[in-house]
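Before relying on records like the one below, remember that each one covers exactly one chain. Contacts with other chains, cofactors or solvent are not represented anywhere in the record.
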Amino acid sequence: MSEIIKENTKGNLVVISGPSGAGKDSIVNELKNKNHNVWISVSCTSRDKRPGDIEGETYYFLTRSEFEQKIDEGDFLEYAEYAGNYYGTPKSKIEDKLNHGIDVILVIEIQGALKIKELLPDTIFIFILPPSMHELKRRLIDRKTENKDKIYKRFERAYQEINEVTKYNYVVVNDNLYEAVDKVNAILLSERCRVDRIEEIYVGNKEEELHELLVDKDLDNEPIEIN
């Protein structure tokens, strides 16, 4: 705790987006090991589970009708339809985590990110890019979770999504996973040091005495002794 400044202790809301295959989830999973002051919000989706998906960790999996019911009940901070499926960010827990000084990370599609930008413009927006479109295509194929038609649609959409990069605050190219994680973590740390997070500056008695001593001695052209 600093003695000279009082800073806003509220956590930052962080949105991470990028085309499918850019490596968003891999970066976030590694980030949790590096920065223990982050909490990853788990989104809801109406898409089917893939091999390796874990309920409550990868997503909260809902049927389409369950998802639409939650939309009607106002349970989402944002939601969007992508590749024929719903994706949404549940409101629960986010504000509580932020108020306890924890940075909350949302890994969401660009449609949803732009909605949050309208609602909460102070959010930190980070866009993840693949090193090349050729590498992005390779990653999508290597997943072996979708047929050629769906891969083609994701690849086609990636071109459209990359055009949105200028609406974000930061861009990180995921060529080397661990370097990309370091860059994202550096962004979070630097955001904590922003001047606009300072609420008050304290100058204690010792500092005031030193200031007066410097002024007085300077006026008298006397040597200054500091204990």
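The chain has a mean pLDDT of 87.
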